Amino acid sequence: MDSVPTSTTGPRDLQEFVQSLPKIDLHRHLEGSLRFETVRELARRNELDLPSTGQLRTMVQIQEDEPLNFENFLSKFSTLRLLYRSPEVIGRIIREAIQDAAADNLRYLELRFTPVALSKAQGFPLSRVIDWVVESARSGEQEFGVTTRLIVSVNRHESPPLAAQVSYLAIERQEDGVVGLDLAGNEADFPAELFTHIFQNARRKGLHVTVHAGEWGEGNNVAQALEAFEAERIGHGIHILQSPNSLKKALQAGAVFEVCLTSNYQSGTLAPDEPHPLPQMLAAGLKVTLNSDDPSVSGIDLSHEYRFALEKAGLSLEQLRACVLTAASSAFLPPEQRQTLLQRLSAEFPQSYPDPAAR
Predict the structure, then answer these.
(1) Whole-model pTM?
(2) Domain count for the chain
């Protein structure tokens, strides 16, 4: 297998190479994708009582000198949620997220969003919020050429009746690009059991299901997501190797893992000096994909994560290619569209590094 050719490929060459790679992101939160320039402009335009640029950045993006834990990570969204004050703002955020995906050479994007979070600033009806997102995503897809589908997300700290309402609205919009339902939020302190019937119903009604599990919580939560929630994909899931039962069930089910390298460290899921379990997950035979999670909050893009995988996590180019093709084959698309996407990425993704002498 090809390793990173450090003797012939310098940092700039490697950055250019990963930037050129075709990409797929299955795990990207809309609320974590706001450009900082947009945050600053919206704060100023709405005369919000927020600090100057330097302090504002610390409120919405992870900084090097901050504590790395999930409380600090989730706190960034408290400020971001003050900004969703009009349909135009919500539409702009979606458009820019898709534009940024296009600039990073994405071929396919599944953008997940939390209707409750988007509605809170002005008390918008949930149905209208979802429609705004649907319309803006369709427009952004056409403008920037990135195939974009939507996953509606509910949080563990929300009430089950509210989550049920959101799921019904998502089910009604499957013809408009809504393809999945996601359970997210603080896995460590809020149990998932109360939402089981909601997700089972969504599956019966045609939505795909992905669940954040084995991220901040135990690896056993992955087995729960697969059995009780009928999840096809697992958000993060990096603690699965601590649970032989979950590992066995994931392998049997062919579950796909949406790994997000940088956020795993920034959220305190992994200690700063702890090796990422990504290589061990692949060695165990798990289906793994690489994703950005919250690119603006983390200050990264998917090219950064591909480079992280090659340079720091120790993946070979062959393994990275396999992760990208796994993402294509597990996209929440109809089978024929998945096959077309897989064929496209298989043809476009290089099987070896370019020869420096050829440049």
Answers:
(1) 0.94
(2) 1
In a domain, residue 356? The reply is: no
Burial class from Cβ neighbours inside 10 Å (0-12, 13-18, 19+) for residue 82 reads middle
240 Cβ contact list (under 8 Å, min separation 6): 214, 219, 222, 234, 246, 247, 250, 257, 281, 286
Please give the residue range of the domain that contains residue 325: 11-348
What integer pLDDT is reported at residue 54 of this predicted model? 78
Q: Is 215 designated active site?
A: yes
**DSSP secondary structure letters along 193-244:** GGGHHHHHHHHHTT-EEEEEESSSS-THHHHHHHHTS--SEEEE-TTGGG-H
Residue 25 lies in a domain: yes
* Exposed/middle/buried for residue 94 (C-beta within 10 Å: 0-12, 13-18, 19+): buried
Whose tokens are 């180019």? That residue is 317
* Catalytic-role residue among 158, 215, 232, 305: 215
Q: What is the pLDDT of residues 5-25, one digit of tens each?
A: 443 455 678 999 999 999 999
Q: What are the structure tokens assigned to 150, written together?
A: 């939507």
CA distance 117 to 93: 14
- In Å, how far are 34, 326, 345 from 246, measured between CA atoms? 34, 20, 30
Cβ density class 208-230: b for 16+ within 10 Å, e for less: bbbbbbbbbbbbbbbbbbbebbb
